[in-house]
Amino acid sequence: xFRVTDAEAGTFTRETPVxxxxxxxxxxxxxxxxxxxxSLAKSLSSxxxxxxxxxxxxxxxxxxxxxxxxxxxGPEVAVAMVRPWGVLGALISHQWDVAGxxxxxxxxxxxQYFYAFNLKDGWQINGSPTFSYNHEASSGNExxxxxxxxxxxxxxxxxxxWKFGLQCWYYIESPDNFGPQxxxxxxxxxVVKLPW
Length: 196
Fold this sequence. Notes:
Elements: E1 34-43, E2 48-58, E3 70-83, E4 86-100, E5 107-118, E6 123-127, E7 130-134, E8 143-157, E9 160-173, E10 182-190
Antiparallel strand pairs: 1-2, 2-3, 3-4, 4-5, 5-6, 5-7, 6-8, 7-8, 8-9, 9-10
């Protein structure tokens, strides 16, 4: 999410977690920055859901390689179409640095596209990959863009519905040597009623 370039050229240089032999160094457990969003949504009678709000990132990383040391904030919007066959939609946010480290600028557009097609007996074909575009990155390192597909099954355990999912994300665009190429995600989620 940031560029690593020559400090003499006037840009910021950050250490990478790679040792002298090309492997990753590890010295314990560290935490990254915390991201959050606060949004309001409205469901329309047509089955369209609209959302608007605020997204942000707090500089909570315990290791400088895992965070930006900046406070980020910006707008967030989403639109989704809900039908008996499933759901289709996208969420987009943009964040700028507003405080913290000022040796470099941060301007990142990110989001998630999502879809789910209902099958029989609680099964779905679905995907929900997250993507980003770093406006401050060097040429060729701006996009992190995966294609995603998966399946999920909702079943009852102890009287409560649970959703089990498995997705594969293949990255058609990824930044530099540290960007991902493929990702397998396994999720377990309890399905709970809204409190209101």
